[in-house]
Amino acid sequence: MLLRPTRRNFLASTAAATLAASASSAPARPKRKPNLLFIWTDEQRADTIDVYGNTRIQSPNLSKLAAESIVFENAYVSQPVCTPSRSTVLTGLWPHQNGCRQNNIALSYDVPAFPKLVDDPDYRSGYFGKWHLGDEIFAQHGFEEWRSIEDGYWRYYREDRDITKNSDYAAWLVSQGHTPTEDRGGFSRNYAASLPIEQCKPKFLELEACDFLRRHRDEPFILHVNFLEPHMPFTGPLNDLHGLDEVALPANHNDPLEENEPLSYRMRSEKYKGIYTGDLDLATEAGWRRLIANYWGLVSQVDRSVGAILATLEELGLAEDTIVVYTSDHGDMMGSHKLVEKGYMYEEAMRVPWLIRYPRFQRRHEVLKGRFSHIDLVPTLLDLMGAAVPDTLPGKSLVPRMKGARIADQPVFVEWNAPETMGEGRNPAGATRDATQTSGPHSRTIISPDGWKLTLNVGDSSQLFYLREDPGDTTNLIDRDEHRPVVQRLTAELRAWQDRTGDTLELPDLA
Predict the structure, then answer these.
(1) Would residue 494 count as lying in a domain?
(2) How far apart are the first and last CA of the chain?
(3) CA atoms of 443 and 461, how far apart (whole Å)
(4) Residue 329, φ and ψ in degrees, nearest 5
(5) Rg (Cα) of the chain, in Å, rounded?
(6) Residue spans of alpha helices (H) in 92-200
(7) What sign for the dihedral angle of Cα 356, 362, 366, 368?
(8) Maximum Cα–Cα distance across the chain
(9) Cα–chain center distance at 45
(10) Could you tell me what percentage of the chain is helix, strand and coil, using 3-state DSSP and rounding each to the nearest 5?
């Protein structure tokens, strides 16, 4: 039906046209440089978020973040232990390239970390939480603001550092009336984990991160927030959040480590039965359930602080302009093969969550199928932020893949460099150790796009698994003659990768 022209209609249409004209002629809001909020945890295996298959852990904020993110289906670290993995996440280089081959090695000042790779003076930057790349409590590597939480790494400080200083978290606890538990004035991890949730490390980092966001709301920023949890001591204020009857033991919990599995892995399995006692007696199923319930509680504890940080991002109107990354430095066996901790070339230690949320991006949620490596994390973030990706980085940007480009899957590589001592520093913590009997042999792993995983171990049994049929690494096929061609093919690809990246480890020849 046509409207009869009236003075009211005419005035209304004229006003609308005027508003439309003024809106179109008004200057567009300048597009902000993207912020980066990089949230990571320590020792969090992939299947601790519902998008990766675990719906039992109470982690609603991580579930919401995953539902708004690009989710990397199978994400692998560069080396399944803290310092080497962190070195890759911060520099985009393999541990054997940046020098951080084992725990407690300081990242060289000559190796640029992420803020220096971005190389933009407009950005305000902060690193809050566990560092584990040397000189733990001191600002470094281009991060302007620093909030430390760990007091136990003073033995590995460089010679010019003051070992009498303690972490920011220790000072915060003292301000709240706590008396230091350590001779040097800091607090042990066990003490911190025994506190009410409002005084634990996640809450401290939450408060500091939210304060950073408020202070820098009008500037582009790069903020890394690194929680210690769910890392050991595997206890916290939410130990009883998940009932023992809710805990599901891993599907491969009762899988025995056969004679053709690495000797070092079998020895460590026996060792754990004597280390954990009381309620955590790992000779019993009840002990395993208690351990896993505590671990899940730590994930839930992190979830609450992550939720508060993301809520502050929304409250400040920063969410649309902020790239949010969530990942971990490595996983944890947590009962798989009746093992605990990291340092194995099994899926549970190597695979981690990896989420990227960026509202400006054309795809807001998708699970990217395939296998991905942390070596590509830095190039991807540099690309998203509009920064140049140096030719010296061995990884590649995954932004084309995130946009839907059909790109052939590539092999994933993971390394393990066995420590010869407990660590390096002016006060080394321990004498020389037998690498084969403690933390495993030097290893190199390749995971092929067709689902094969080959680990070549120096001085110990090697491993071959077909992940498409055996996702839990339960049947080592390394001795099967029919798989010789697979071993030969993957060994050749491993050696080609070594040549490209300057890895000089001499691998065994199983051909």
Answers:
(1) no
(2) 83
(3) 10
(4) -80, -20
(5) 25
(6) 95-98, 114-118, 168-175, 189-193
(7) negative
(8) 95
(9) 9
(10) 35, 15, 50
Tokens 């070339």 correspond to 345
Phi, psi angle pair for 374, to nearest 5°: -60, -15
> What pLDDT is attached to residue 126?
98
Q: Supply 76's token pair.
A: 């692998």
The domain of 146 spans 35-408
The DSSP code for 154 is: G
Question: Cα–Cα–Cα angle for 445, 44, 380, nearest 5°?
Answer: 65
| Alpha-helical regions (H) of 418-482 | none
pTM: 0.91
In a domain, 499, yes or no: no
Q: 490 is written with which tokens?
A: 């993957």
Residue 423's region, left for phi above 0, alpha for psi from -120 to 50, else beta, is: left
124's CB contacts (< 8 A; 6+ apart) are 144, 145, 216, 219, 220, 221, 222
What tokens were used for 35?
Answer: 């912020």
Could you tell me if residue 391 is inside a domain? yes
- The three-class DSSP label of residue 452 is strand
- Number of domain units in the chain: 1
Q: Which two tokens stand for residue 124?
A: 């305000």
Side chain identity, residue 230: P
List per-residue pLDDT tens for the chain, 511 residues long.
Answer: 333 334 334 333 443 444 344 334 444 445 789 999 999 999 999 999 999 999 999 999 999 999 999 999 999 999 999 999 999 999 999 999 999 999 999 999 999 999 999 999 999 999 999 999 999 999 999 999 999 999 999 999 999 999 999 999 999 999 999 999 998 899 999 999 999 999 999 999 999 999 999 999 999 999 999 999 999 999 999 999 999 999 989 999 999 899 999 999 988 888 887 777 778 899 899 999 999 999 999 999 999 999 999 999 999 999 999 999 999 999 999 999 999 999 999 999 999 999 999 988 777 789 999 999 999 999 999 999 999 999 999 999 999 999 988 888 999 999 999 986 544 444 433 323 343 345 778 999 999 999 999 999 999 999 999 999 999 999 999 999 999 999 999 999 999 999 999 999 999 998 7
3-state secondary structure 300-336: HHHHHHHHHHHHHHHHCCCHHHEEEEEEECCCCCCCH
**Total length of the chain:** 511
Whether residue 111 lies inside any domain: the answer is yes
Question: Omega into 27 within 30° of 0, i.e. cis?
Answer: no
Q: Name the amino acid, one letter, at 212.
A: F
Please report, for residues 59, 190, 287, 349, the alpha-carbon distance to residue 283 in angstroms, rounded to integers and kept in the order given: 29, 23, 7, 21
Chain centroid to CA 124: how far? 22
The CATH number of the domain holding residue 85 is: 3.40.720.10
Nearest-CA neighbor of 134 among 117, 159, 158? 158
List of residues 6+ apart from 451 with CB closer than 8 A: 466, 467, 468, 469
Helix, strand counts (H, E) of the chain: 14, 13
Tokens for 26, please give them. Answer: 């008004």
C-beta of residue 77 within 8 angstroms of C-beta of residue 329: yes
Closest alpha carbon to 91 in 331, 377, 327: 377
